[in-house]
Amino acid sequence: MPPLKLAIIGGGPSSFYVASRILSLLPQSDPRASQLKIHIYDRLWAPHGLVRYGVAPDHPEVKNCTHKFDQAAEDPRLRFFGNVQIGPQTPPAISHALPIPLSALQDHYTHLLFSTGCTIPTLHPVMPPSDRVIPALSLVHWYTQHPSRPAPPPLEKTEHVSVIGQGNVALDVARMLLTPPAILEKYDVPAPVLDLLHRSAVKHVSIIGRRGPLQAAFTTKELREMTTLEDNTMTPLAPELLAVPPGTKLPRQQSRILQLLQQASASASASATQTSRSWSLDFFRSPTGLTADGQLTLAHTALDASARAVPTGETSLTRTDLVVTALGHHGDPASAHHDPALGHVRTDRGRVLDAAGRALPRVYASGWAAMGARGVLASTMIDAYAVVDAILADGFGGAGAVPAERGFADGAEALVAEPRDVDLGSVPPEVEEGVRARQVVQYEEWKKVDAEEVRRGAERGKERERMGWQEAHAFLTGAGAWGNS
Fold it and tell me: 386 to each of 11, 59, 381, 474, how far by Cα in Å?
């Protein structure tokens, strides 16, 4: 029976869903269990990717999936190696990560999975990052203490923020900037972030989209949270914006969003309560430029017959202190097998394809690396399970396997070893040395940091108090908590 030794590049939710699924389908009692090893590599020192460094702090329930990941990591056939950069450095750079080439994995694994996500923000074509324009991803990385350590936003001198985009990330950013810090204190918000939020001068956040409320990408849940923000007022929307076009039958999601906007607008119009902060949904507006003195030019738009936003010829100006672009993400063009036309890796049923559309032998992609930056954790899990079917079919045969003589790329550069040539217990020597040098973090060490973060948080009456890399390294060293290779 051939061995199946899988290297996974990326340690986010898709990676752990894949690993957990394989381990559950091949339990220790299965005759093939002894022939299975899974190694997860992540350029971040802590596991779980977007669950730790992307989920809004006031959404702790979304992070419950980590219990499943912890259970998977208890299986001795799974190992995690954090703080390891496989291949080219992916922006944003992690200076302390151990760099090793992709080729270093080749002799040690029979199967390879790219689960590297979409780490590059989509920038606005006429407003690149500057001291007045920052990608939403930088703001998210700031308030989640991402190892890339982006600069804090200038909130102390910012009264008006314009968020470009109307998806869930845009609403997350707006909510974090508007929520009273006293409410955020109980959540997983790092102390330096809370300190700056306490000093913030933000009074209004405009959430700008080029289309209308029926085309907005945010969910009902995210919108409802905005409408119930403490000490905040929504700017009422014009009734004609919320009118259903004649003869239109709305899907349930759109109907609920429209009803919620109608209720929130009516409530805001009738309220005489003065609040310290406010926010608005600015539909049918498309930014076309930002002047040095903070004048944001907005082209007015309308929908054509294909529901695309087209300019009407009218424009208006909005005075703003900070622009946050929340326009989505894409994969790193420098990463292996990136397809620039798609913005991510090209795949077929989980298998990575070459330029001619043929499957690379035993090479796969999952999650956002394969699908693009869309969907929620549930869709990530479903995709991961489908990729597992392909991996197991190719590894052990059966329904869904791709015959090499028919479906795989001929003469493709080998990225993995032949099953007969692999040592199940080996890891690349660079990684072994990184473990000995206490540069590479394994899962048991992460769990010690995790427990300490929770303990420190409990002392402050909050979910946890996060550590950065230097602090985590010092803690593990001081506690004598580094493991062995």
Answer: 18, 27, 9, 40
